[in-house]
């Protein structure tokens, strides 16, 4: 559904709507300007300030991102120059035909892979040229990732799965158990904390995966087709949960090929032939919505 307004149009008219600019430091720039002194207005210094603030406010800033896979000597270009900015607390759906590069892009956003060319600034840090161990640190502290297949460890209970990222963060067992159980409660699964994945439904498994993604309080929650393995009713419940997570101030980016799912979000970015085809704000009203009982 092509509802809404082009994000680039909004940006051109009122950039502060999507990237709110705060101006507490403006006087500092004026003071730092030897020609004009503290009171006089120097647009050049404002411009520098606005650029730096815009970069700071953007959680994701992609410039000309390219990714090719190599099959022998043959190059398969998948992403062919993606430019995209996502600000703090945005709620974005990435859409596009199968094979258009959505997962490739999500893996780059989630620091699971690096681009062949281009720049990726995540929360002010250039992650596009980082080595593997630096990327692993960024993944642990900045990113929660939810997968279509849930990717839970079958031998661990729900709370142990949720607590896994806390082991890498160096938390002790008592703290891990307490925090994991509190997070499971938030996603409506307090009574399933000792169950193993094979004792959980698809929707419950995805809630565990979402709790695991949130446990380190990441600055970015990414989900690649999170409802792809779920029936319609369960998909609505999971999207309701993502909406609540977004309402609490989180930045959420998800991939879906279903319009009904994308319409839960606030902005739809469509990828085709390796570039951004369109970038629209949604009407912000989900097409289907059922009330859920969980407490996040
Ligand atoms: P989508 O998620 O939009 O369906 P993908 O990002 O998974 O698309 O894949 C985009 C293209 O890149 C497809 O043609 C796919 O076959 C190819 N591709 C994905 N991963 C690899 C890989 N590791 N090696 C080679 N080709 C790949
Ligand atoms: Mg995919």
Question: What does this entry show, briefly?
Answer:
The chain has helices spanning about 5-15, 15-20, 25-30, 45-55, 100-110, 130-140, 160-170, 175-185, 200-215, 230-245, 260, and strands at about 60-70, 75-85, 90-95, 115-120, 125, 145, 220-225, 250-255, 265-270, 275-280.
Explain what this protein looks like in three dimensions:
- The chain has 296 residues and is α/β, with parallel strands linked by helices.
- It has a domain at 7-11 and 88-118 and 129-281: Rossmann fold (3-Layer(aba) Sandwich), CATH 3.40.50.
- The protein is 37% helix and 23% strand.
- It has eleven helices and ten strands.
- The strands form two sheets. Strands 6-7-8-3-9-10 form a six-stranded mixed beta sheet, with helices on both faces. A four-stranded antiparallel beta sheet has the order 2-1-4-5.
- α7 packs parallel to α9 and α8 (173-186) crosses α9 (202-214).
- The longest helix is centred in the C-terminal third of the chain and has 16 residues, at 232-247.
- The chain is globular, with a radius of gyration of 21 Å.
- The two termini are 29 Å apart.
- Adenosine-5'-diphosphate is lined by residues 69, 76, 78, 96, 98-104.
């Amino acid at each position: 559904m092509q509802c809404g307004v082009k994000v680039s149009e909004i940006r051109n008219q009122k950039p502060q709507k999507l990237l709110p600019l705060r101006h507490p430091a403006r006087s500092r720039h004026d003071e730092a300007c030897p020609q004009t002194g503290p009171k006089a207005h120097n647009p050049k210094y404002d411009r520098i300030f606005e650029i730096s603030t815009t970069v700071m406010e953007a959680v994701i800033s992609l410039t000309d991102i390219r990714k090719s896979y190599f099959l022998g000597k043959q190059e398969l270009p998948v992403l062919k120059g993606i430019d995209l900015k996502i600000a703090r607390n945005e709620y974005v759906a990435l859409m596009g035909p199968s094979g258009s590069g959505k997962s490739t892009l999500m893996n780059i956003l989630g620091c699971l892979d690096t681009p062949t060319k281009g720049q990726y600034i995540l929360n002010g840090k250039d992650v596009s040229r980082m080595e593997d161990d630096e990327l692993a640190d960024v993944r642990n502290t900045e990113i929660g990732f939810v997968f279509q297949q849930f990717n839970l460890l079958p031998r661990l209970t729900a709370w142990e799965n949720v607590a896994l990222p806390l082991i890498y963060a160096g938390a002790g067992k008592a703290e891990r158990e307490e925090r994991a159980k509190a997070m499971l409660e938030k996603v409506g699964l307090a009574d399933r904390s000792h169950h193993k994945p094979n004792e959980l439904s698809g929707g419950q498994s995805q809630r565990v995966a979402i709790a695991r993604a949130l446990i380190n309080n990441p600055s970015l929650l990414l989900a690649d087709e999170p409802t792809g393995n779920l029936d319609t009713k369960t998909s609505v419940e999971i999207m309701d949960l993502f909406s609540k997570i977004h309402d609490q101030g989180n930045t959420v980016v998800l991939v879906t090929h279903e319009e009904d799912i994308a319409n839960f979000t606030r902005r739809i970015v469509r990828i085709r032939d390796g570039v951004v085809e369109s970038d629209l704000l949604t009407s912000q009203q989900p097409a289907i919505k059922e009330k859920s009982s969980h407490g996040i």
